Amino acid sequence: MGSGVRSGTRIRLDGVGRRYGLRGRWVLRGVDLDVAPGALVRVEGANGTGKSTLLRLLAGLDAPTEGRIVGRPRTAYVPERFPAALPFTASGYLTHLGAVHGLTRAAAARAADEWLERLGAAGHARTPLSELSKGGSQKVAVAQALLAAPELLVLDEAWTGLDAASREELERAVAERTADGAAAVFVDHDPRRLAGMTDATYTVADGALTRRTAAEPAWPDGPRVAVEARGPAGARPPAEAVRLSVSVAERADGAFRLDVTGPRSDAVLRALLGARPPWHVVSVRPREEGRR
Amino acid sequence: MTTALLRYQAALLVRSQRWLPPLILYVAALGIGVQGGQPVLDSLGWTAAALLPVTAWLVRVCATNEPAAARGCAGAAAGPGRAHLASLLVALGAAVLLGAAAVGVVLAVSEPAGTDRRTPVPVGPASGAGLSAVLACALVGAAVGALTTWPVLRSRGRAVPALLLGALLALVTTGSPARAAVDALVRGSQEGTVPAPLLPLAPAALFMAAATALSCALTTRRSS
């Protein structure tokens, strides 16, 4: 299974309502939501408004009481808290889950080690889950969702409990997945989470979902990176790199300057270097923060 | 992907050590009801009957082995219904293995004769009859377990009494495939003939399939 999911299935909620029990109150009602491949969607709302229910519907863990859900991409879900009361080591659990996600056992074991490493938990690979700290367990929950390169990533406060380095790594991983054509829907209490990358923000209130229409800068504040690259004479930068960039400018000497948000910089570099023929990256420099 | 789910659930069961209490219950029940030198078919009847509540308990163990968050992770990857199905199948498989091992022990220690101790009972057909009764009881027990655990019954306070009552009813109610299978063995022992209790297998399998379908369908309709 490759990581290419450009033709990924989309998922659509059509007039979806959800209540628990025959006479329970409606937690959500009349929800329409279309999540296209590559989309990064943020869901906001006060506690107890049904954000988690919406994410469970998207992850296929809840069935709508009314309305319907069309399309089922290969899905991975990160729960808010992952109590690791399971009789496995971290890498043992991840290998099982990787196989459940559709990898071969060998590939699953490899991916498990890779993701634990990326999240700074390689030293815990052989640690029983029951002995992991809260942050350590959360890394395992994050790793299980990422290791099979899903087409739809559903993150319910996945950053909670992670240390600063792995919070950043998870942002980068989400950026990579969406750059790769996978969709991601997330809830997080930190308004700066993945700022500048989200394609849409929705608010859940009183059981209804509304798209936030307040004028929001498409690329708000946040760390930026300036990438200078040179391609074959007369060529425009690869479409993928342009799509991921805040702005693209051609310089007098024929090189291009791409302004990129921090989390997307790796994906942009990959697009440049992976192009045929590859682009030459002249320089990569952090830009001072500031409004456009 | 289904193989991966079965492996995952089986590993969960084996490593959780929650299989130990039902196993002890079964060994104790066999210790009480099976003694060396007794008529083989009587002992096989007891072996099959005792497996029913044990299977229901194993299903409960497997269906509740994962915390809700972990269930969500596997459920999102494979579909919650399929993930739950795997846990039910692993419990049933474990119960059948346990029952088959018990049949082997019973055949080894029992007297190959009817209740009158004179009419000989051939071991080959007796083992077939024992295995099919064990299978029927395991299927009915798994159905009882599936109907009395998450997601059908979520509160422990109601689920455990319901499981016990369900297992008892499945053993004593006329028309229950488990009772029919056990009765056939006991009658065979009295009459000195080996029954072929294959007939109860069909309704037992049907009951299990219906209970499984209901239980798996409810995984996405109930709160965790």
Automatic annotation (TrEMBL), chain A:
Pfam family, one: ABC_tran
Residues covered by the ABC transporter domain: 11-231
Matches recorded under PANTHER family: ABC TRANSPORTER ATP-BINDING PROTEIN ALBC-RELATED
SUPFAM superfamilies: P-loop containing nucleoside triphosphate hydrolases
GO terms assigned for molecular function: ATP binding; ATP hydrolysis activity
The protein's name: ABC transporter ATP-binding protein
Source organism of the structure: Streptomyces ruber
InterPro entries hit by this protein: AAA+_ATPase, ABC_transporter-like_ATP-bd, ABC_Transporter_VariousFunc, P-loop_NTPase
UniProt KW keywords: ATP-binding, Nucleotide-binding, Transport
UniProtKB/TrEMBL annotation, chain B:
Superkingdom per UniProt: Bacteria
Keyword tags: Membrane, Transmembrane, Transmembrane helix
Transmembrane segments: 84-109, 129-153, 160-178, 198-218
Protein name: ABC transporter
Organism: Streptomyces ruber
